[in-house]
Amino acid sequence: MARKAKTEGADSAENAGRLKQIALTYKMTRRTDSKIGLVIAGVGIATFGVLLGIGFVIGHPVYLGILGFVLALLAMAIVFGRRAERAAFGQMEGQPGAAAAVLDRIGRGWTTTPAVAMNRSQDVVHRSVGKAGIVLVAEGNPNRVKGLLAAEKKKMARIVVDVPVHDIIVGNGEGQVPLKKVRTKMLKLPRVLTGPQVTTTNDRLRAMGDLMSNMPLPKGPMPKGMRMPRGGKMR
User: Fold this and answer.
1) How many CB atoms sit inside 10 A of residue 220's CB?
2) Which of 48, 88, 150, 177 is within CB 3.0–4.6 Å of 68 for a Cys-Cys bond?
3) Are 177 and 135 in contact, with CB atoms under 8 Å apart?
4) Which H, E and C letters describe 2-50, residue by residue?
């Protein structure tokens, strides 16, 4: 009895947490998408109404009504998820570190290391490793990040061999990838590495990072007003 009550209590707490998360997501989405409530309600009513109407036509309004209710909830959830994602990307776009946030949610099989390279102008390169190889994702001024990408590739060339390296520049210009399409772009890359090869590649890159971290650099935040040396990079 005690175990059953404990389980039920945990389930209730989990459900409450989910509902709270949904409510929070809705509030955040509504800040940039004021019509989201009307759109979701319209989708639900339309889906239920169509199925219920078909049920009356074929003489099974109860069965089709139940099916319509279930499908209406599903359709509402799908529309809500897509519009919430679109709103989230809209709020993140142009913010420093936005690409890192997207890479962090790319899914299993990918290991992301944010800000492997950065310059004084805060242009930054993030690195993700998966079965498609190594993907360097840069955000910032397109002309400046090309130099960061080239330097990062040169550095990695001494550590990893025969591993494909792809680069993505986040942006809306020619040859760039919009923030909301970065995840899709990466997932479409051909898978050429096995699981053990991915692990080996990650280990070598981490070792390279450890070597860089052993350099006698001052710890803690950079003092206010302090500038990096000309041509220097943060790692």
Assistant:
1) 5
2) 48
3) no
4) HHHHHHHHHHHHHHHHHHHHHHHHHHHHHHHCCCHHHHHHHHHHHHHHH
